[in-house]
Design a protein that fits this description.
With 255 residues, the protein is of the alpha+beta class. The protein has one domain. Helix content is 16%, strand content 39%. Strands 6, 7, 10, 11, 12, 15 and 16 form a seven-stranded antiparallel beta sheet that branches. The protein is globular and about 60 Å long. Pfam families: MbnP. This is Copper-binding protein MbnP-like domain-containing protein. It comes from Litoribaculum gwangyangense.
Length: 255
């Protein structure tokens, strides 16, 4: 019996050691989950179409559509080696699509000083390629505004200063000033730096957007003044770009 017990104990230790070695893998599969809130209150499409949120300017509003584009998820290690997932996703909160996705590209395990992604498309991605899936979802920007694609569509209704329910369309694109003989463009895509991360196994990154930030920091947004026709509004696009810098946050990592 002692011999049998010893064999069983040996097998248990061997199996445990084998499991320990599997805790760290050389290449990790990654999943990205996107959640949304209004200053900490969860927002999903079940909360749409009801005026229930108050922005920093004191206006009550609803959300009826929210979708936005992310691209080029990038990891940079302490040696400044960069690992990029060269793909994009249209996060569609309205239709509950692409809120979670797992790229086919794997990333080496290790410690990275930054995890980032591009909000929208950079100029090369925006203008050098044709994306049938984005074309089919009315994501294009008119040629008179420079072409390419939207970065975000946030739409809803708000109570204006006459207590009338009024629609708004907070659409972000590359800024263009058409007031002169030659259009002037300003880049408004931006890199979202989610900070340092360590990957030891297949990982799930939980990323959250605080929708309220689009209306308050550093520019307090007055929907009575800026509610529609914002795509050709150069200054409005710059303000949106500035307000977007603090919208996203890495909530947690599961692995």
């Amino acid at each position: 019996m002692k011999i049998i017990a010893s064999i069983l104990m040996f097998c248990f230790v061997l199996f445990s050691c084998s499991e320990d070695k599997d805790d760290t893998i050389s290449q990790a599969n990654l999943t990205f989950n996107f959640t949304h809130n209004w200053d900490g209150v969860e927002v999903s499409n079940v909360n749409f179409n009801t005026i229930q949120y108050t922005n920093a300017n004191g206006e009550q509003l609803s959300i009826e559509r929210l979708r936005y584009l992310i691209s080029r998820i990038t990891f940079q290690n302490s040696n400044n080696e960069v690992f990029t997932i060269n793909s994009y996703k249209l996060i569609d909160v309205t239709n509950n699509k692409n809120l979670s996705f797992t790229p086919t590209t794997t990333i080496p395990s290790g410690t990275y000083k930054s995890l980032s992604f591009t909000f929208g498309f950079n100029n090369d991605d925006n203008y050098n390629f044709n994306y049938p899936d984005l074309n089919s979802t009315s994501w294009n920007v008119p040629e008179m505004l420079g072409g390419g694609y939207h970065f975000m569509q946030l739409e809803g209704k708000f109570m204006d200063n006459t207590a009338t329910e009024t629609g708004f369309a907070y659409h972000t694109i590359r800024a263009v000033d058409n007031s002169g003989a030659t259009p002037i463009f300003q880049d408004t895509f931006f890199e979202v730096d989610l900070g340092a991360v360590t990957i030891s196994n297949n990982a799930v990154f939980n990323i959250e957007m605080n929708i309220a930030e689009w209306f308050k920091n550093p520019n307090t947004w007055d929907l009575n003044v800026l509610n529609n026709m914002l795509m050709p509004n150069y200054n409005a696009q710059i303000m949106m770009f500035e307000n977007g810098q603090n919208v996203f946050n890495l909530k947690s990592v599961n692995q």
